[in-house]
Amino acid sequence: MWLPCGCTSKYVASSFARRTLASYLHVSGRSRCNVAAFMPEAAGLEGVSGRAALRELSVSNSESFWAAVARHRLCWSTPFHTVQDCDLSRGKIKWFEGGKLNVSVNCLDRHVHTCPERVALIWERDERGSEMKYTYGELLEMTCRLGNLLRRHGVKRGDCVTIYMPTCPLAVASMLACARIGAAHNVVFAGFSADALAERIRDGEMLLLIITVNQGVRGGKVTELKKTVDTAMQSCPTVKQVFVAMRTDNPVTMTARDIAMEEVREQKANQILEIQIQAVEDVVCEPAVMNSEDVLFLLYTSGSTGKPKGLVHTQAGYLLYAALTHRYVFSYHDGDVFGCVADIGWITGHSYVVYGPLANGATTVLFESTPIYPDPGRYWDMVERLKINQFYGAPTAIRLLLKYGDQWVNKYDRSTLKTLGSVGEPINTEAWEWYHRVVGDGRCPVVDTWWQTETGGICIAPRPSDPDAEIVPGMAMRPFFGINPVLMDTEGEVLTSNNTSGALCMAQPWPGMARTIHNNHQRFIDTYFQPYPGYFFTGDGAYRSEEGYYQITGRLDDVINVSGHRIGTAEIEDVVCPAVAESAVVGYTHSIKGQGVYAFVVLKKGIDVQEADLSRQLNGMVSEKIAKYASPDFIQFAKRLPKTRSGKIMRRVLRKVVESDLEGLGDLSTLDDPAAVQEIIQGHEKLLSKNRS
Ligand code: WTA
């Protein structure tokens, strides 16, 4: 079906895709009114006279809007016949049915066809100043070789491949290779422990293959990723093969299960410069023809129970939404260098390092390092060196860098920057102002983008809006095209007035939203659609200002956000230690990380241990079972926890205690034994003063 295209005969692209591409370019060239100039995809929509009208139409007539955008922004091998078939009350979400396409063709072949020499990836390696560039042609070749390698080792359409790798070109090629041959991928953040990796592998069915690297390198430190995979494998008997790529030059023990991924490498001064996937593989790899609603990937994220959920995203709707938000929220233009510093192990890495930018033919940066390695000027040195136009990062890093002072920023030329983005947690006004005034020299709009693994892409952000529309510090502000947010009161009624707060829900489906939880559609319904029937519940609270702008106020469930990494408090509580009778974990405000982890622990009767020793042991266990970032900052030992008469731990009370908000303790009359609260307060004060001294 996909035929070799004329100018680059070794690559493949569909003739249909080429036709669509031509019409895409044709429409781009048309400029009927300012809407068409701003959004060429919308040129054919009747009666839209300005951006506000376009936004309105995207909600009131969302089918026309999404149909027009999908036709023009994606290359289809068969056009879709139904724009959407959704019923939020049943958690049924389907977009663009009948349509067939291949995501890797959309991200690679069509750009290779028009500009094979354009740089697709800039790999900002941990070692400063050693960045490597890969053109679209090279990335397609890497993807095709890898796709063939996977196929030769038995990976079929509908299978699922786990990717446990740091952010690097081979990881991107692995994701795209899966997409090319119709397999789903399951990227597991390389900071997760062997246990967490094993849990995520076991939960998925048909997971037969893992791709990893010998070692990771981050902030000058080496991590033993292959060894972690070996440990995880002890409890994953279904995994038959592990592909191992070489990030460093240190050999690792290979077992019968392991397959070396590269054959030929160019080396210089002990650094591997050329990663080449088994040269025997052909550089042409026939793309699978996928249905719009086939699975593209699973991505595990934390919920309010101990078990992480594998959210499922599908092909067309996800790609379209990632591409459209990338283009319009950041005002990305052809030729820009897009620098999102997220790890590919999180949804931000999926949507704004890989799929959104590549679907738009952008040059995207793969950041392997940390904001302070080798010094706090790392980001801005990178901006100068790589001439980054859009920089997208997390508030936690901004807060950290702010403390090191302006000189680390001012040292570098940031004149290429046009837009600054923030994601993952609320950005406080001080950090926002610094980002805007110092990093952006007061001239770049700062977009505080609110979204989730579940939403697939940005849902609320200050842009797109009129170029001179106001941006309020620390507010996500405006819903994106097709997004219809509502606030709910405690009775489940929609709040219609402004200057009000409530539970943030979405009243309408959009193409980027997750389709289900892998192997557990009931949990999907219970979590997102049952709390407010007919609406998608985000789990966040929000405030709507007098002007109608949205500001996220934080999670309403037992999920906390540590340095922008989501973690369920129940996941930490589930780490079992024989000495512990029960525990309760809550988040508290942390000046750098946004939220820190505070654990209350009740020991079993008759246990005689030093608290300091047990704290160390518990911290070690959490790192080993989950990841380092989930390790408690504080562990308070208590005789008992405040509970309701039915035995439920009153986390609300614990949260108030750790925030030192004793005025806000509220009604304690439902407590089984109110004296428990006094003990908790005293214990907390003791722990704080011990920490201060
Ligand atoms: C939080 C990350 C305030 C929120 C893309 C959400 C934010 C959770 C913002 C999703 C923001 C994300 N302001 N809070 N701009 N962006 N959040 O799934 O609580 O890792 O529900 O996706 O992060 O985290 P996730």
Automatic annotation (TrEMBL):
Domain of life: Eukaryota
Keyword ATP-binding: yes
EC number per UniProt: 6.2.1.1
One GO location term (cellular component): mitochondrion
GO MF entries: acetate-CoA ligase activity; AMP binding; ATP binding; propionate-CoA ligase activity
GO BP annotations listed: acetyl-CoA biosynthetic process from acetate; lipid metabolic process
Domain annotation AMP-dependent synthetase/ligase: ranges: 109-510
Domain named Acetyl-coenzyme A synthetase N-terminal: residues: 53-107
PANTHER family: ACETYL-COENZYME A SYNTHETASE
Protein family membership: Belongs to the ATP-dependent AMP-binding enzyme family.
Protein name: Acetyl-coenzyme A synthetase
This protein's encoding gene: ACSS1
